[in-house]
Every structure is written in C-alpha cells, then in structure tokens.
Amino acid sequence: MQEATRASPAVRVRRVKAADVADVIALDNRVTRIAKAEYWNDIFSRYGKQRSDERFFLVAESGADRSGSGLLGFIIGEIRAWEFGSSPCGWVFALSVEPKMRQHGIGSALLEAIAGEFKKAGVTKMRTMVARDGHLPLLFFRSEGMIAGPYTQLEKDLE
Question: For the segment 62-109, what is each residue's pLDDT rounded down to a tens digit?
C-alpha cells in the first residue's frame, strides 16, 4: 500500500489488522456515541480478511509512531457491480477520523488510498452516500471532487 501524497508524511495508510479492531471500535464509539463492537468485528471478518482484491478496510496511523497505538482513522469500501444497471464502481461506506486530528489531511489520505485500490482493481468511478443533514461529510467529499451522481436513494418505513 502506498502512502498518500496529499497528507502529512507523518500519516501512513495500510490494510487493517486484527489488532486494530479494538481501536476502530473505540474511535467509532467516540464519534457516533453508539457502541457496536459486534458490528465492527463482523465488518473486520468480511472486509478485513476476505476477498481483498475487491474489499478494502484501510487504517491511517501515525507514520512517526510505529508502536501501533496511533490509529488516526479508517475507511472501508468495496467494488460493487450491476446494481440497477450500474457498471462496476468503488463504494465507500465508512470513513472516520479521530476528531482531534481532523483538518490534517487524514481523511484525504484515506480516500486517496482507497481510490488507488479501486483503480488497481480496474474501476473508474467511486461513490458514497451522505445523510442529508450530514454537512461535514458532504463538505469533505465535495472538497475531494465528488459530485452528485446519477442515482437517487429511496426508502420506505416498514413499521
């Protein structure tokens, strides 16, 4: 895995390891205020250990601190194809950065790294979804060159 070029050289992006899962769980809990260890262990099992040519679970860590305790953020995505006629593309479905470390290029490094993985796998388009009231993620993805795509997400309450 190549280090990202736009982030500080003190940031290193690599594939997740089992030893990172507890830090991912802790970061997600700090950001969302929802504890969901079972979910993250399942995500690691499916995206950190299987089909690594089309599923990507990457973490950012301090390049200066190689002790393994400096998780700065993570990103997860996969290549999806032919849903509603969509040609193969990369989908980012999770991105989180340590709140105290935002505005230091970590999110950009993670997005650039996963984009590189998608390109190596042969896809030329990357997509994500953002909640309508998710202004911070929307601003981030727009600043990275992402624009509205050709699909509209729909949902229905089943209660």
Answer: 877 655 558 999 999 999 988 888 899 999 999 999 999 998 999 999
Task: Tokens for 150, please give them.
Answer: 């050709």
Q: Which of 141, 2, 121, 120 is nearest to 58 (CA)?
A: 2
Cα separation, 51 vs 16, in Å, equals 14
Taking alpha carbons only, the member of 129, 134, 127, 136 closest to residue 154 is 129
Give the phi and the psi of residue 44 in degrees, each rounded to 5: -60, -45
Rounded to 5 degrees, what are φ and ψ at 78? -155, 165
Identity at 53, one-letter amino acid code: D
Taking a C-beta distance cutoff of 8 angstroms, is the pair 52, 28 a contact?
A: no
